[in-house]
């Protein structure tokens, strides 16, 4: 079989992988705090008997995520927060480990636990509990104050402080659940970032996705065309093989 099949196949597979990433980005163009996934490929020369200067295979690489700032929109909702600059909010993942997110559309469940998309927001002593029916306000440093139901402003109390961290560039990696995690520690366990006292957030606002819908659509069209090109090469290789078989059968 002509080795050009393997070259075209690697290119088509890479195009399919990239299309799935672009589609995921496009589907999250309106998701609060979403960070676009990046995808790239590098060419690797084919070695061995098939070595030719023009014959290369495509290998997928994973450069990570786009950590650029998304647009901030003021909502006026007291439980909406947008992280400033490079700050991230700590939340508890399903396995109990500490993870990080920029999604700030917070809610309070029936038990009074502060949540971010169903996951407890971590404070200085673990998940943060809010008194039921209380009026809540969140300060720029993440401090949460509450006025219990049925009393006046003089009863304002501090109920917790959201843990904010500022990771180094490229330190966070995205998990399958969409949450970001710190590097593993020396023992091989999940790492935890220290709280940053200087990290700030904006109350009553939300940070939007940093995905550009126009760029994502252009990328999707480009990837689809490159996939069609690779499939055309596969079709051409099949036609060449059939013609070669026909010539050999005549000579035989």
Automatic annotation (TrEMBL):
Residues 83-146 form the Flagellar hook protein FlgE/F/G-like D1 domain. InterPro entries: Flag_bb_rod_N (IPR001444), Flagellar_basal_body_rod_CS (IPR019776), Flagellar_FlgE/F/G (IPR020013), Flg_bb/hook_C_dom (IPR010930), FlgE/F/G-like (IPR037925), LlgE_F_G-like_D1 (IPR053967). The keyword Transferase does not apply. Its main location: other. GO terms for biological process: bacterial-type flagellum-dependent swarming motility. GO terms for cellular component: bacterial-type flagellum basal body, rod. It comes from the Bacteria. Keywords: Bacterial flagellum, Cell projection, Cilium, Flagellum. PROSITE patterns: FLAGELLA_BB_ROD. Residues 5-35 form the Flagellar basal body rod protein N-terminal domain. Residues 203-246 form the Flagellar basal-body/hook protein C-terminal domain. NCBIfam families: FlgEFG_subfam, PRK12640.1. Belongs to the flagella basal body rod proteins family. This is Flagellar basal-body rod protein FlgF. It comes from Vreelandella sulfidaeris. The lineage of its organism: Bacteria, Pseudomonadati, Pseudomonadota, Gammaproteobacteria, Oceanospirillales.
């Amino acid at each position: 079989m002509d080795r050009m099949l393997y070259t075209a196949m690697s290119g088509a597979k890479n195009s399919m992988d990239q299309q799935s990433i672009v589609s995921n980005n496009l589907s999250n163009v309106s998701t609060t705090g979403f960070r676009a996934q990046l995808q790239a490929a590098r060419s690797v020369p084919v070695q061995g008997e098939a070595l030719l200067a023009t014959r290369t295979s495509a290998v997928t690489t994973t450069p990570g995520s786009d950590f650029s700032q998304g647009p901030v929109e003021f909502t006026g909702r007291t439980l909406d927060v947008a992280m400033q600059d490079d700050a991230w909010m700590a939340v508890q993942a399903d396995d109990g480990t500490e993870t990080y997110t920029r999604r700030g559309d917070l809610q309070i469940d029936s038990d009074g636990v502060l949540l971010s998309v169903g996951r407890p927001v971590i404070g200085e002593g673990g998940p943060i509990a809010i008194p039921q029916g209380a009026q809540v306000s969140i300060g720029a440093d993440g401090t949460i104050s509450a006025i219990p139901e049925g009393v006046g402003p003089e009863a304002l109390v501090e109920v917790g402080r959201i843990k904010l961290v500022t990771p180094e560039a490229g330190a966070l990696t995205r998990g399958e659940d969409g949450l970001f995690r710190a590097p593993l520690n020396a023992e091989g366990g999940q790492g935890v970032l220290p709280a940053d006292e200087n990290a700030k957030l904006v109350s009553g606002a939300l940070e939007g996705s940093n995905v550009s819908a126009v760029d994502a659509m252009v990328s999707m069209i480009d990837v689809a065309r490159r996939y069609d090109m690779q499939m055309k090469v596969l079709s051409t290789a099949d036609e060449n093989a059939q013609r070669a078989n026909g010539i050999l059968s005549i000579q035989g």
